[in-house]
Amino acid sequence: MLTPHFVTFAERPDLLARWIEQRDPWRDMEWMYHDPVCEGYWHHLRDDFGDFQFLVYEDDAVLGEGRAIPFSWSGRDEDLPDGVDEVLPLAVEHQEEPNTLCAILAVVDPGTQRKGVSAEILKHMASMARDRGCESLVAPVRPSLKHLYPLASMESYAQWRRPDGHMFDPWLRTHERLGARYAGVCPNSNIFKGTVAEWEEWTELTFFESGEYLAPRMMNPFHIDLDAGEGTYIEPNVWMVHDI
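-> structure tokens emitted (244 positions)
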């Protein structure tokens, strides 16, 4: 049975160094590292919100990583930010007392997947939110199987359910089983940009004309503009809300 332990990055820099060496959460998805908003604000997670960045480990073997950031939210679904690219600047720059914790990232080592580690990461985030008096834990979820259905809208996909009534997507289903509710889609959660040459390198495609294209592990098409010399991939996420 899994016996997870949790430490912040600052508490176990040795484990963090080992984790950085062993994991690459977006292997074969280089474009995931090229969201200008995340590039500009990501350092604030460790610099200003270090208590919310943690590792989960067992017997000194790192099993996964969790990153979260507190912000202020009205509690109304319609007031949720448009995903990661709005939450990060809002949390860093907004001066109101935060009342909500937002799960930014949950990564599990491939060797320990399907052992309940992701659920333990969410439980720990909920515990952190509770300890700090937050009313909710919210997550702009990147569904784990949406890339297999890239032409389906995220709005439709998020509503798909199995015959047993549970949500179809495994990552959404994990949230739901822990008590979270679906609160809508954030259509512009991450916006990834690069030159045409970079997109050709990242996707191993050659672009002879402007238009919409698909690449492995993308959840929907991306756009290439040869006249502008750039490509853009806009990725929606799904808001799941855990009441604390």
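Helices lie at 13-22, 36-41, 43-48, 84-93, 117-131, 154-157, 170-177, 196-203.
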